Amino acid sequence: MTHTTTELTFAVNPSDHPLAAAERERLLADPGFGKVFTDHMALATWSSGQGWHDAQVRAFGPLSLSPAAAVLHYAQEVFEGLKAYRHDDGSIWSFRPEANAQRLQRSCRRLALPELSVDDFVGSLKALVGIDQAWVPAAGTGETSLYLRPFMFASEAFLGVRPASVVTYAVIASPAGAYFSGGLKPVTLWISSNYARAGEGGTGAAKCGGNYASSLAGQLEGNQHGCDQAVFLDSATHSYIEELGGMNLFFVTRDGKLVTPELTGTILEGVTRSSILELAKELGLEPQERRIEIEEWKDSARSGEITEIFACGTAAVVTPVGELRWDGGSVDHRGDGPAIGEVTSTIRRGLLDIQYGRAEDTHGWLTRLA
Ligand SMILES: *Cc1c(COP(=O)(O)O)cnc(C)c1O
Question: For the domain that residue 101 is a member of, what is the CATH number?
Fold first, then answer.
């Protein structure tokens, strides 16, 4: 059970140059996504001799890294993404951080990085959010939160190819406005048939930077065809739907099923995805994880068998999907129905209500951070 005990205490060294309150409030008024950072960051070091040590929270700032650091050459890196939500009484909570901790452990095993215990992971979030809690946007301002980005990388200065013997773990935090600043809008998707993001036996089920690097060309191809995002298919047959570059997909059928591609080893297991599968039953929907052919999407969208499609992930919560385009064609399952379907809206609202403390947390999904 050593992996579940707390080993680290994050020593807090407050920044000597925190942003003035007025300047912070100005940034919090319209933070966008991922471009404004708080005053502090959490750090810890692992070495093969000492294990995890030097856990601390200190001023946010550049890292000192050798140009020979292995991550810069061989991409031995994993990350997580979750949010801190302020409730009406001022308290700050996160949504299923233990699930993110366990997923980070699985990603670490795949990328041959050392594991961090669940308690140390949650401890690092509490230490950082504790000192930077003024950066968590006020309750009731809509869908704003403090986005937390834990990550781990090979910091050893060594060009030989083997798992690094020195590794850095860090957490940074970034206030985030509502993902859709102009209101919820359906996205148009592009079927990427030239590119795959993951292959059998590869790293598709791990949350690693390399998967994102390999998704960019497909994403760009989609943008060039006027689409917001690319849908990736399985790399072996190019016929089964996997997911977007950073979001899972769900299909609502006319007969009340909520279908999502099953986890085949090349799909990332989203925390939002598994939460929605649990919520589905409470909404009277029948959750179904199975393989879905891209031809089934095209045919059922045309026949009206599929009534709604949405993508999901921590950053954008639930995003309605509109048109699907590919080389030589397109289909829009919505016909003359509403731009955003009822099931999509209900699931989106249901998740947000739990996260922001507006609905009872009957699943025990919330963990208090500050
Ligand atoms: C992070 C991620 C998701 C969404 O996961 P959540 O835990 O719901 O945020 C989906 N697909 C990929 C490829 C991802 O990296």
Answer: 3.30.470.10
User: Lowest mean pLDDT: which of 6-10, 203-207, 317-321?
Assistant: 6-10
Which of 82, 232, 247 has most ligand 1 atoms within 8 Å of its beta carbon, as the pocket-test mutant? 247
CA atoms within 13 A on the CB side of 257: 11
Give 57-96 pLDDT, tens digit per residue: 999 999 999 999 999 999 999 999 999 999 999 999 999 9
**From start to end of 68-144, where are the E strands?**
77-79, 82-86, 92-95
Q: Is 247 in the pocket of ligand 1 (CB under 6 A)?
A: yes
Q: Does 109 share its domain with 199?
A: no
Pairing of the two strands 92-95 and 329-331: unpaired
311 is in which domain, residue-wise? 187-355
pLDDT digits (tens, 9 = 90+) for 251-306: 999 999 999 999 999 999 999 999 999 999 999 999 999 999 999 999 999 999 99
Which residues, 6+ apart, have CB-to-CB distance to 183 below 8 Å? none
What is the pTM assigned to this prediction? 0.96
Q: Which of 153, 176, 199 is the last residue of a domain?
A: 176
**39 and 123 in one domain?**
yes
Q: Indicate the number of domains in the chain.
A: 2
Q: Determine the residue of 82, 207, 219, 264 to mutate for testing ligand 1's pocket, defined as the one with the most ligand atoms within 8 A of the Cβ atom.
A: 207
